[in-house]
Amino acid sequence: CWSLLAASSGGQGGVVIALIFALIINIGAYWFSDRIALGMTKSQHISEQDDPELYSIVREQARLAGLPMPKVYEIHTDSPNAFATGRSPKNAAVAVTTGIRRILSREELSAVLPHEMAHVGNRDTLIMAVVATIAGAISMLAMIAQFSAIFGGLLGGREGRDNISAC
Q1: How many CB atoms within 10 Å of residue 138?
Q2: pTM of the model
Q3: Domain count along the chain
Q4: Which GO terms describe its molecular function (predicted)?
Q5: Which entry of 48, 53, 116, 159 is annotated as an active-site residue?
Q6: For the domain that residue 101 is a member of, what is the CATH number?
Q7: Which residues is 44 bridged to in the sheet?
Q8: Structural domain containing residue 12
Q9: 101-142 confidence digits (pLDDT tens)
Q10: Is 60 known to be catalytic?
Q11: Cβ count within 10 A of residue 71
C-alpha cells in the first residue's frame, strides 16, 4: 500500500523526493552511461593513426552490422575482455583490452567484435543502464525504509496503525 510505503520512508514527501532522485539518476545513466563505463575502466581513446589494425577491424564489423562507426578505446590490462557501451548506435563505443589483443589473432578478434556490435545495435547497454538505475532506486527506497524503521519508528503513532488496516 502507498500509505505503508510512505509512512516507512519518511512520509509521502520522502517517497516523492526519492523518486525524483531516482529519475535524475536514470536520466544521468541514460546520457552518461558510455562515459561512466569507459571512465571506470580507465579506457583510452584510440585513433586510426594509433592502431590502424584495430580500427580497421571495428570499421569492418560496423559496416557489416549496418551501424555507424563507434569510437574505439583500449584498456591497459592483461585480462582478455571487450565491451560495447553507449545509449545509441550514434553514441556507441567499443573497448578492447590489451590482454585480448595479445591472445587473439585478427580473425579471432573479428569474431568477438560482432558480438559487441550486436549489443550496440540492440541497445543492450541502454537497457542495462536503465535496469541498473531502477534496481538502485529500489535499493535506495529499501534503505530509507530500513533507517526510518530503526531510527524513526516504522509507522509512527496511531495514524500509521490506521493506515495498515486500509491496505
Answers
A1: 11
A2: 0.69
A3: 1
A4: metal ion binding; metalloendopeptidase activity
A5: 116
A6: 3.30.2010.10
A7: 74
A8: 2-165
A9: 999 999 999 999 999 989 888 988 778 777 877 787 788 778
A10: no
A11: 18
